[in-house]
Amino acid sequence: MKKLTKDYQVGTDQTAQAMGSGDLEVLATPALVAMMENCSKLLLSAELVAEQTSVGFKMNLKHLAPTTVGAEVTVIAEIVEEDGKKISFSIEAYDKDQLIGQANHQRVIVDKTAFLAKL
User: Fold this and answer.
1) What pTM value is reported for the model?
2) What is the DSSP letter of 85?
3) Residue 27: what are its φ and ψ, rounded to 5°?
4) C-alpha pair distances (Å), 88 with each of 8, 21, 79
5) For the chain, what percent of residues have pLDDT higher than 90?
6) What b/e readout covers 11-20, taking b as 16+ CB neighbours within 10 angstroms?
7) Which element (helix H / strand E) includes 32?
8) What are phi and psi of 50, to 5 degrees?
9) Helix/strand/coil percent split, the chain, to 5
């Protein structure tokens, strides 16, 4: 299946303390989710026409280990199933050789204009 590997550096604005999801200066779970979604979106974007985009639909995440500010997080997203406009991903995140997160994620392909018309 199709796969993308992307590196992200943990910034001070991505800590649990800064984001309000916790009290410690470590990578926040919401920031890890954003990294994983971004990697998946980028992987899928290459398949879409200009009028299309994808939106996050579902995320099942295990945040397994803490990560310090300044660390480089490597995210690997792989498409594991395509069901019409619903695309499923398996995602792993690493801090060096340590697995820090695993997720199953679904994105839905939408027409940009039609999607925004729902606002």
Assistant:
1) 0.96
2) T
3) -55, 125
4) 22, 26, 6
5) 98
6) eeebbbeeee
7) helix 29-45
8) -55, -30
9) 25, 50, 25
